Amino acid sequence: MATESLSRLRELALGCGFTYTGELWTDTIRVRPEVRDTCATGKCNSYGKNWSCPPACGSLEECEQRIRRYRGGLILQTSGALEDSLDYEGMTQISANHAKYMRAFQETLMALYPAPETDALPPYLLLGAGACKNCEQCSYPDSPCCFPNRMFVSMEAMGMVVSDVCTANNLPYYYGPNTLTYVGCVLL
Ligand code: SF4
Fold first, then answer.
1. For the CA of 146, the nearest atom of ligand 1
2. Ligand 1 within 6 A of 47 CB?
3. Best substitution site from 126, 151, 152 to test ligand 1's pocket, by max atoms within 8 Å of Cβ?
4. Which of 49, 106, 127, 134 most suits a substitution to test ligand 1, by most atoms within 8 Å of the C-beta?
5. What are phi and psi of 3, to 5 degrees?
6. Domains held by the chain: number
7. How many whole angstroms separate alpha carbon 86 and alpha carbon 60?
8. Is the dihedral of CA 163, 168, 174, 175 positive or negative?
């Protein structure tokens, strides 16, 4: 993608509310089985319960193939301050903000890059943080995903260590004591 287009996309992302953005190059991304192993422990209570999470989101190999179809894109961060390390209300608020900005950016992308009518390469891959929460109750496994074009797969579900992706692309992940940062990305 041309640098000029990436700059414009960055402006649009910041306009959606993200705190920080940075260029992301696909060749810096490593997918790691350890991340999937952590998913499988059920730590976040979404493994095997959501179409966006393992195992439904595909094998690690399939996820890597999807990633490698794109050259690069943007890292999207929502960062905020907490009163202290037990400020759960603050954490929930930052998480809700990130989800809101991701949805707004998804709308922007959908307007900019209409979905292909054929099986051609989807124009972008938008990855979020945590399991998809578009529906009050995910339809997995009883019926197909209700909104496949709007489903959010997380960077972790794709096997990425989020902090490593940021570091490899020269964007901070940690913004100091009592801050919290949620991360998503888009590949084009
Ligand atoms: S869009 Fe709904 S059904 Fe599809 S993965 Fe997200 S929560 Fe589940």
1. 3
2. no
3. 151
4. 134
5. -55, -35
6. 1
7. 34
8. negative
pLDDT tens digits for range 122-178: 889 999 999 999 999 999 999 999 999 899 999 999 999 999 999 999 999 999 999
Structural domain harbouring 83: 3-187
Q: Which long-range contacts (CB under 8 A, 24 or more apart) does 130-136 make?
A: 130/44, 130/46, 130/95, 130/154, 130/156, 131/44, 131/46, 131/49, 131/50, 131/52, 131/53, 131/157, 132/50, 132/51, 132/52, 132/53, 133/99
User: Given pLDDT bands bounded at 50, 70 and 90, which one contains residue 4?
Assistant: low
Taking the whole predicted model, whether its pTM rises above 0.90 is answered as: yes
Residue with more model confidence, 107 or 119: 107
